[in-house]
Amino acid sequence: MKTQVSAQAKKLFSALAFVALAAPAWAATQTVTLSVPGMTCAACPITVKAALSRVDGVSKTEVKYEQREAVVTFDNAKTGVQKLTQATTNAGYPSSLKE
Ligand SMILES: [Cu+2]
């Protein structure tokens, strides 16, 4: 009985993994969280938000100063994580994708 449940769970897991891997190929809107450790005062998020919002394809940017994070929603056919981190870096705030 136990092995049967485990086999089913494995099947379900691989199905979910497949969906997760396949999604970027057709899903146009993607949301990522960037770690922006360089934000040192309450005004920094304004600069970071402006830099990210200026990237073509970005539809929503939410910068959380307390967490040193930026949550960005974008069209993944137009832009990508590398362009987002490049934009914050150019504005003086290097960032990286938060896993
Ligand atoms: Cu600041």
Write a structural description:
There is one protein chain. By secondary structure, this protein is of the alpha+beta class. It has three helices and four strands. The chain has helices spanning 2-26, 44-53, 81-90, and strands at 29-35, 58-64, 69-75, 96-97. A four-stranded antiparallel beta sheet has the order 2-3-1-4. β2 and β3 (69-75) form a beta hairpin. α2 (44-53) crosses α3. The chain is globular, with a radius of gyration of 18 Å. The N and C termini lie far apart (36 Å). The mean pLDDT is 86. Bound molecules: copper (II) ion. Residues 40-41, 43-44 line the site of copper (II) ion.
Give a concise summary.
The chain is built from 3 helices and 4 strands, in the order αβαββαβ. It is an alpha+beta fold and 99 residues long.
Features:
23% strand; 45% helix; 3 helices; binds copper (II) ion; 99 residues; alpha+beta; four-stranded antiparallel β-sheet
